[in-house]
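Before drawing any conclusions, I looked closely at one protein's amino acid sequence and its backbone structure tokens, quoted below without any editing.
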Amino acid sequence: MVIPMGSKYQIPYINACIRAFARRFRLSVQTAFEYLYNFKGIHFLVEFYEIEHLQSLDDAVDDLIVCCLNNGGTLR
């Protein structure tokens, strides 16, 4: 997957979302990344960055949960 460089803040934002997701579920950052990658959460953040970055990190994590559940994930 290639991350388009539309914003210099996109990678730091995705990193912050991964870390917030890890905190929510008490996972390591590496485990959270692997889960989000496998269940299309990272792709979701890249595709919808323009909308997602305007919301709180808590809202972004809520959206990631729904996205991953829709793609076979099991964390609720």
User: Anything to note?
Assistant: The chain has a mean pLDDT of 93.
